[in-house]
């Protein structure tokens, strides 16, 4: 795999920002790692960070490069600070950045596929929420999305870590319902369109503070008939589980079967 620490200017944010990118590389003599690469345009996983983290965290806390190497998939890890992947009421337009600008910029820099069947999004905690928010808002762009311990209902008073920041991010809590930030509303909407809904994977530990909202969202998707794979097990909000579960997510992704070079 090739690893790129990419710094660039964002028109949406009006500031310079960063992303980590790992790209497939076909190698024959590298010791201890099997690398594979497919065609000229790589399938891509947009991998999102949580509230207290940044774009470096997946590389620091997991072996995501090693996990992705065998699959021939690119991984794009952007920085969004503590934005909840929203156009903040008092702050930066991170939703415009993540939903409109990021993929176009990444494809202009790197050989990434623009086909729906080659694009996926996943994340942990705040990033799990962001992954579902992105895929459900744009079912025509993403084949699958995965949430690890994501807070499924950001209007819930139990959301950990926001505190007084909530109004800075979302403004009036009453505006969330029925909006771009409401995953339940987005699930309703995507279930009523003629566009094939993205496959969804949802994991949460039973001792996690997001557990109740995860169960509610699971049940909501079940009623709508959406294709959601749900898993839970004893666990809290921590990296030991996320490191294991991102491997499960990679195995679950509906990657197209292409001839890979190794």
Can you describe what's shown?
InterPro entries: AB_hydrolase_fold, Esterase-like, Mycobacterial_A85_antigen. This is Esterase family protein. With 262 residues, the chain is α/β, with parallel strands linked by helices. It has one domain (2-252): Rossmann fold, CATH 3.40.50.1820. The protein is built from 8 helices and 8 strands. Strands 1-2-4-3-5-6-7-8 form an 8-stranded mixed sheet, sandwiched between helices. The mean pLDDT is 93.
Topology overview:
Blueprint (H helix, E strand, L loop, with lengths): L1 E9 L4 E9 L20 E5 L8 H5 L2 H6 L4 E5 L15 H16 L9 E6 L1 H12 L6 E5 L16 H6 L12 H9 L7 E7 L5 H14 L3 E6 L5 H14 L10
Parallel strand pairs: 3-4, 3-5, 5-6, 6-7, 7-8
Antiparallel strand pairs: 1-2, 2-4
């Amino acid at each position: 795999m090739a690893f790129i620490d990419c710094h660039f200017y964002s028109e949406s944010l009006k500031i310079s920002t960063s992303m980590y990118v790992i790209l497939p590389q076909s190698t024959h003599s590298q010791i201890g790692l099997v690398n594979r690469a497919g065609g000229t345009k790589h399938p891509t996983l947009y991998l999102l960070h949580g509230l207290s983290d940044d774009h470096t965290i997946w590389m620091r806390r997991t072996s995501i490069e090693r996990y992705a190497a065998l699959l021939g998939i690119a991984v794009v890890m952007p920085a969004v600070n503590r934005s909840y992947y929203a156009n903040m009421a008092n702050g930066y337009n991170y939703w415009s950045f993540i939903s409109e600008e990021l993929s176009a910029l990444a494809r202009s820099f790197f050989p990434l596929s623009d086909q729906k069947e080659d694009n996926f999004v996943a994340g942990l905690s705040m990033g799990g929420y962001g992954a579902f928010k992105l895929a459900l808002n744009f079912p025509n762009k993403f084949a699958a999305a995965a949430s690890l311990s994501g807070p499924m209902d950001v209007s819930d008073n139990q959301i950990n870590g926001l505190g007084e920041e909530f109004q800075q991010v979302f403004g009036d809590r009453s505006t969330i319902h029925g909006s771009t930030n409401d995953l339940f509303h987005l699930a309703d909407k995507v279930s009523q369109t003629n566009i094939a809904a993205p496959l969804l994977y949802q994991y949460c530990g039973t001792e996690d503070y997001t557990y109740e909202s995860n169960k509610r969202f699971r049940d909501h998707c079940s009623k709508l008939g959406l294709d959601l794979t749900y898993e839970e097990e004893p666990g809290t909000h921590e990296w030991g589980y996320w490191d294991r579960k991102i491997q499960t997510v990679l195995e679950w992704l509906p990657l197209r079967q292409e001839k890979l070079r190794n």
